[in-house]
Amino acid sequence: MTTVTQDNLLRRYIAHLRLEKGMSDNTIEAYIDDVEKLLRYLDSAGLSWKDAERDTLVNFVCTLQDLGISARSQARIISGIKSFFRFIVLEGLIEENPSEQLETPHLGRHLPSILTTDEINSMIASIDLSQPEGQRNRAILEVLYSCGIRVSELVNLRLSQLYIDDEYICVDGKGGKQRLVPLSPSAINEIMLYLQYRSEISIKPGEEDYLFINRRGRHMTRVMVFYIVRNTCERCGIKKKVSPHTLRHSFATHLLENGANLRAIQNMLGHESITTTEVYTHLDRQFLRQEINMYHPRNKQ
């Protein structure tokens, strides 16, 4: 077998995740963190990745349980370890995968928190339009809910990805994958009103193509959007734990409740696997009939 140092192996694994799997830097960082947990455990036992056997990995998982690590976190760590050993086998550095039969803890169905349409309407209506950023904030909330995009996708949305006449946006999703998302009439209206305000802002060089701009002429950050959502909820008296992602969950759930096709919702959300989207089916199991843009509340005007 080829002699490979641990540091060199990790560098090659990172390149594999980035170039072949198309993972984001944040996802790669999480995978490496989980693998390093295992490597530290092996090192404490006087072992390396080359020496790992199934029983060794089972003992590692038992250690996670003893430390009180949640089943969901255990499942994520095990997933990262399996990915790591699949890569090692693929590289021809070991012949058998010791993680192949490693069992993942049973996870209960996680039901995401959602807002009602009345709560979302209340949030949007509560925005003070007399404030300079008022219309921008209304547009942000409307796009998050009407399009179901991630907050990272929203802050990176460009003017050049906005197709108002065709009523859709082009979104850069995870792994650099693009997808088209329909724009509701409400979202178009709020964006057009915001663009009038945006035209009066002095925008910094290099920031001209970003759709959502802060008062200093730079594109919005995830943290800024989080504060907008949280502060709006507080102003409306909404006691739920709400984040920008809650609007994405609400988007998917409301579509499904109204009869949208699960596969269409998967495409709009940018989910790789339909099983990721199926978490929303706890609310409505009736026959799924039509495409996404026919069933979102914002399209029924």
Report on this model:
The chain has 301 residues and is mostly helical. It is 50% helix and 4% strand. The protein has twelve helices and three strands. It has helices spanning 6-20, 25-44, 54-66, 71-90, 117-126, 134-147, 151-155, 185-198, 222-236, 244-257, 262-269, 274-277, and strands spanning 162-163, 168-172, 178-182. The protein has a three-stranded antiparallel sheet with strand order 1-2-3, with no helix packed on it. A hairpin with a 4-residue loop joins strand 1 and strand 2 (168-172). Helix 6 (134-147) packs across helix 10. The longest helix is centred in the first third of the chain and has 20 residues, at 25-44. It is elongated. Residues 282-292 have low confidence and may be disordered.
Number of helices: 12
User: How are the strands ordered across the major sheet?
Assistant: 1-2-3
**Using DSSP, what is the number of strands?**
3
**In angstroms, what separates the terminal alpha carbons?**
66 Å
Point out poorly predicted stretches.
Answer: 282-292
Let me know the largest β-sheet: 3 strands, antiparallel
Integer average pLDDT: 84
Which value, in Å, is the CA radius of gyration?
23 Å
Strand content: under 5%
Characterize the overall form: elongated
What order do the SSEs take from the amino end to the carboxyl end, as H and E? HHHHHHHEEEHHHHH
Helix content: 40-55%
Specify the structural class.
Answer: mainly alpha
List the helices and strands and how they pair.
Layout: H1 6-20, H2 25-44, H3 54-66, H4 71-90, H5 117-126, H6 134-147, H7 151-155, E1 162-163, E2 168-172, E3 178-182, H8 185-198, H9 222-236, H10 244-257, H11 262-269, H12 274-277
Antiparallel strand pairs: 1-2, 2-3
Helix pairs in contact: 2-4, 5-6, 5-9, 6-8, 6-10
